[in-house]
Amino acid sequence: MAKEVHNVILKAPAGKFRVAGVGLFSHEDYLKEDYASEAEASKVADDHNTKRSGSMDDVYYVYDDQGTYLRGMRRPGRRFLRE
């Protein structure tokens, strides 16, 4: 079963890349959108994360269709998928 955080499944649909957000103040996780390419999802996450103005602003993370963390504010490669 895919890792679910506050009702957000981090594993993207097959062949897609998921951008999920986390509100650092509210501690709420949410689905931003699924994208057809890693480049597109990474651009959305990077654009958002580089515009953060405070330490408690929302952060975007990118996951692939295996539930593997690819990009965000920490080291890539960590799997969040529970099988």
Detailed description of the structure:
With 83 residues, the chain is of the alpha+beta class. The chain has one domain. 16% of the residues lie in helices and 30% in strands. The chain contains one helix and six strands. It has one helix at 38-50; strands at residues 4-5, 8-9, 17-22, 29-35, 59-63, 69-71. A four-stranded antiparallel β-sheet has the order 4-3-5-6, with helices on one face. A two-stranded antiparallel ribbon has the order 1-2. β3 (17-22) and β4 (29-35) form a beta hairpin. The chain starts with a strand and ends in a 12-residue tail after the last strand. The relative contact order is 0.25. Mean pLDDT is 82; it is low at 75-83.
Largest sheet: 4 strands, antiparallel
Supply the helix-strand structural class: alpha+beta
Give the CA-based shape: globular
Quick one: how many beta strands? 6
As for the number of domains, it is 1
User: Which percent range fits the helix content?
Assistant: 10-25%
Order of neighbouring strands in the sheet with most strands:
4-3-5-6
Rg, rounded, reads: 12 Å
Terminal CA distance reads 5 Å
Order of helices and strands: EEEEHEE
User: Number of DSSP helices?
Assistant: 1
